[in-house]
Amino acid sequence: MAQFIDRRLNGKKKSTVNRQRFIRRHQEQIKRAVSDAVNQRSVTNIEDGESISIPKGDISEPVFHQGQGGVRERILPGNDQFIRGDKIERPQGGSGGGAGDGDASADGEGEDEFSFQISKDEYLDILFEELELPNLEKNQVQKITEWETHRAGYQTAGVPSNIDIVRSLQQSLARRTAMTAGKKRLLTQLEKELEEIKNSEPAQPLSVRKMKEEIETLRERIKNVPYIDSFDLRYKNYERTPIPSSQAVMFCLMDVSGSMDQATKDIAKRFYVLLYLFLTRTYENVEVVFIRHHTQAKEVDEHDFFYSQETGGTMVSSALRLMKEVIAERFPVNEWNIYAAQASDGDNWADDSPKCKELLTASILPYCQYYSYIEITKRHHQTLWTEYEKLTQGFDNFAMKNIRSVEDIYPIFRELFQKQLA
């Protein structure tokens, strides 16, 4: 029987397959832990993985054990409570408690939850699973690089999981046929000659013995041809090829006025950190435009967007006018997929909110693939929210959500960018 020995040097990644299988098996628990980690992390802490804890009950394997039923006779040494014939009451709750249940037992013993560390890549893969930019269309200039994996024949080297058994056995059959066909024809000829010699007169014992030796040697050589060899192995080959795609720009509009206290700004920054990570990890070459505004709007770089201390009054329409100008100047609507994410506490001049609605209705939403607005407040909504609510009735590409606390950030982010069903 053939034996396959994998002698490749895997370094420290020998358990990669088992690790991925474990992550898939406990995906729901890991997703919950990652969701909790988003709320606890610092805004700038995006380079590390995460420590995941799974309750012991969720990873325990089913086992067979002796039940509580039946008739038993047992001798307990040192017994000072029962005599022969006494009946012992069954413990309440069936199998009883103790350290094996994961909780603290009566004698103070127990078992901890199972903890393990996931890498940064695994953390981000789980964080942004099943998310996408909505309504992404194929436009004229192709700049986002998306890849599609497809089968591309076979190769003679690869990982064991990609072995094609049928193709490998076909190669084995072809090799054995090529190596033994001539020998089998010679064997058939020798066996035929042997029968003729045996039936000939007079008897030729020396020739018969010599012929039998040749036949036995030939059979042994045919038998020694291995059933399968490393040369026979064929592995499925996969290639990544670029597929037709589109280019997109995301406008990030953040209110930094005086009404936005530090806690509100921190929630807004957390939301934008998630958005920025999602865009840069999922799409290549996607443009991101950062706009901060109070009474005046300014296009800034990534560092100033997250860390600048500038503040002032509130004029939301200034950010929308700047966005309109940037689109007209640098992003032709027939070539670009345009997206926007706006964060504010909803505080705005009362007469400015209708202007925001007019700007969105006339100059932005008709050319936008998707516009999301998040309002970070625990108070009653003001005029900006009221005016924006009117937009939801006329535009399917407009979405608005209310974030009240840090715990709402990740669930609402997933709602806004959930992958659409085909």
TrEMBL record:
Pfam families on file: DUF444
Region called Disordered, residue ranges: 84-111
PANTHER family, per database record: UPF0229 PROTEIN YEAH
NCBIfam families: PRK05325.1-2, PRK05325.1-3
Family: Belongs to the UPF0229 family.
Name of the protein described by the UniProt record: UPF0229 protein BTO23_02215
Native source species: Aliivibrio sifiae
Underlying gene: yeaH
